Amino acid sequence: MIACCRGTATGDPGFPAPVHALRENTRVTTTRGPTLCPPVTHPSATDEATRTGRRTVVRYAVLAFLFAITAINYGDRATLGIAGSSISHDLGLTPVAMGYVFSAFGWAYVLSQVPGGWLLDRYGSIRVYGVSLFAWSICTLAIAGIGRIPHTIAFPALFVLWAGLGLVEAPTFPANSRIVSSWFPTSERGLATSIFNSAQYVAVAFFAPVMGWVTQQFGWQYIFIAMGVAGMGLALFWLARMRPPAAHPAVNAAELAFMRSGGALVDIDDRSRRIKTTLTRRQIRFMLTDRTLLGVYGGQYCITAILYFFLTWFPLYLHQSRGLSMTQTGLAASVPALCGLAGAIVGGALSDMLLRAGRSETLARKAPYVIGMAVASTICLCNFVHSALLIVAIMSFAFFGKGVAAIGWAVISDIAPKETPGLAAGIFNGIGNIAGIVTPIVIGYIVAWTKSYDGALLFVAAHCIVAILLYLFVVGRIRRLSLPD
């Protein structure tokens, strides 16, 4: 059967449709048989599709896929925390040994951010992302078998596998940023980045209770098996179906033209445009010393410090300092996570709304960040109240602000040099996640020395103030930066 179409392709909006889309100045293609339709010259496919309003929206299906993968990513990171008590009991690991195991992910993840970003620029987002997803799923699945090996080698085996998880997960968020840069115009990029970034809150709010139940009912091994199998399935589907915008068979000419004209880097994964040579010393120095980049890097460090307080010390704060039971703590900890999810959507939507209203990109990106961090700084008000309900309310309000401020991935997508978006995102994420190593340790010392969490909350709030100052006085005009020759 010969397929000859006019205008746009229809079918599944996310992945290959049965009838291929028209491209500008190209022949109509068919799913079977030879190409018999002549070139369309009047009117053009883009003009016709745009005029009739039949532009495809494949980019949103891609975004949904990124959201699902990121949720799995954070679910994998949560497994060891959920199963930690059972693992330490079954394998005979001391708290000190578990502390070293927990730290293995952070060190490996931070140190591999820059190499991961370079791999994305060198080999393309789709291939590197798919391999990364498959590899970290293998590591997760392998941890399920730790209980079957001799206890004498259980600690080094778990340490290596958890560090391996951090190593191969490194390209994930830089890849998300790079893919959003290629699929979304500037006016939609704020909301798009907020949506994939909000998957972290979904993982905390929904995966953690489910994993706790599975661990209690069936054993800790089963959560690693489930997450590993889910990740491997997603990886295979990603590699089989995902294509760059210009090569995706479900994208029609109108959507491609809309993305390109709006500032999307649709050709970012064109093999001829990838990095083929080593960057010069001057270019590397630019990536590490440019004022705007440094301000954005520092802002990401500050907002990540807030996240890691919630992921590590917040439950202990509720239990030890405010007297909540473990069941109450689990329920209370999920409320700020849901508020963070809502805040992330609001922040991204606000940024894009300002752009569509004609405001400058600088105002559209900085305003949600500054407002959000100002709201997040109210976390220190918990030092002046005693009601557990009011404390959870303040924490939820603060975490909502943190979500609103989670616009940094849109900013780095907007300003990264077009030659090295993966590398820029890798540096950005690497510096940000240093907070994941520093914050838990510093708060631990503060609590140990002062016998109180008051100083810890002030420490977190201080990061909010520093972040606001960085975006107001260090980060310059938001625009695409260019590498020096």
UniProtKB/TrEMBL annotation:
The keyword Iron-sulfur does not apply. Residues 62-479 form the Major facilitator superfamily (MFS) profile domain. It is found in: Cell membrane. The keyword Nucleus does not apply. PROSITE patterns: MFS (PS50850). It holds the Pfam family MFS_1. Keywords: Cell membrane, Membrane, Transmembrane, Transmembrane helix. It comes from the Bacteria. InterPro entries: MFS, MFS_dom, MFS_Na/Anion_cotransporter, MFS_trans_sf, Sugar_P_transporter. The chain crosses the membrane at residues 57-75, 95-114, 126-147, 153-170, 191-214, 220-240, 292-311, 331-355, 392-412, 424-449, 455-474. It is a multi-pass membrane protein. Gene3D superfamilies: MFS general substrate transporter like domains (1.20.1250.20). This is MFS transporter. The lineage of its organism: Bacteria, Pseudomonadati, Pseudomonadota, Alphaproteobacteria, Acetobacterales.
